[in-house]
Amino acid sequence: MNRDRGRGRAASGHTLIEMLVVLALIAILAGMAWPAFGRQALRAQRIDAQDLLLRAAMAQQRHHSMALRYHDEPLGPGAQSSGGHYRLAVEVTGEGQGWRMRAEPLGRQQDDACGTLTLDHLGRRGGDRADCW
After folding, report:
1. How far apart are CA 48 and CA 26, in angstroms?
2. Residue 91, SS3?
3. Cα(first)–Cα(last) distance of the chain, in Å?
4. CB-side neighbour CA atoms (13 Å) of 129
5. Within a domain: 9
6. Handedness of CA 84, 115, 47, 38 (dihedral sign)
7. Which domain holds residue 78?
8. What is the rounded CA–CA span in Å between residue 82 and residue 89?
9. Of 90, 127, 126, 83, nearest in space to 108 by CA
């Protein structure tokens, strides 16, 4: 009597192969996007170095206006950027009348192609590459 039970009904759900194909596509897309995300993160953290150099330059100018010479540690000893991605190195030149500062990358930021960013008392910006500022 009920020999046709189950026949004629549409199958519901997904097969294992369909699920594996979807997972493979997601893995391929993630594999292509991850390197771009990493480069963008390094680029965004470079702003940390620019902020460090500009804050130190303002501190240098404040110190120079009071002491008529620049300081070799404008932000204190061992100054680092607010995110901890860069360390400040200062070189005072010309008997305290000039300076050149470097923001040296730390940790994972060392993988950034721009490397060290520089700024001097004349406002000249530089680095390992010209397009990093």
Report:
1. 33
2. strand
3. 82
4. 9
5. no
6. negative
7. 16-127
8. 15
9. 83
Closest CA to 115 of 101, 104, 100, 102: 104
Segments of the chain scoring below 50 in pLDDT: none
Structure tokens given for 104:
């040296």
Q: What is the pLDDT of residues 68-103, one digit of tens each?
A: 999 888 888 889 998 999 999 999 998 888 999 999
* Residue 18, CA distances (Å) to 15, 22, 26, 30 in order: 5, 6, 13, 19
Contact residues for 125 (Cβ-Cβ < 8 A; gap 6+): 117, 118, 119, 133
Whose tokens are 């192969």? That residue is 17
* Domains: count for the chain: 1
Distance CA 103, CA 73 (A): 13
- Number of Cβ atoms within 10 Å of the Cβ of 10: 4
133 found inside a domain = no
3 lies in some domain? no
The whole-number pLDDT of residue 5 equals 56
Is residue 5 in a domain? no
Q: Which helix (H) or strand (E) holds 20?
A: helix 16-67
